[in-house]
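Structure in, sequence out. Go:
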């Protein structure tokens, strides 16, 4: 899988949430949090289509895009790369850094504990 750029990942995040959308819908969602031009969004989405990251339905006047790359696979690939390059392969360092950035909620900590408990039980 080609590693998506930051801009491509932002577009993928919107499309993973919406499942499919026009350039206008993606642009409006991105514009809620960042200053970006419509033509920039259009161009990036056209490039992503050419790379095989997005499918494009050209049946109607407004082209509808949907992601061809799966969210979980993309996250796993990006995390694997980050783990090896930024944390020297240390899962512990990555988790400690992530948890140290913001104070996790009680619900988040409960989910993390349950996940760790399941990992320990699977190894027994």
């Amino acid at each position: 899988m080609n590693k998506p750029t930051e801009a491509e990942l932002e577009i993928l995040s919107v499309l993973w949430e919406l499942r499919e959308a026009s350039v206008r819908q993606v642009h409006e969602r991105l514009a809620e949090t960042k200053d970006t031009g419509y033509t920039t969004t259009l161009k990036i989405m056209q490039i992503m289509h050419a790379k095989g990251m997005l499918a494009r339905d050209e049946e109607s006047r407004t082209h509808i895009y949907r992601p061809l790359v799966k969210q979980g696979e993309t996250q796993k690939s990006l995390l694997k790369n980050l783990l090896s390059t930024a944390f020297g392969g240390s899962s512990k360092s990555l988790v400690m850094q992530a948890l140290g950035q913001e104070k996790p909620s009680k619900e988040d900590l409960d989910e993390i504990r349950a996940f760790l408990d399941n990992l320990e039980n699977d190894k027994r």
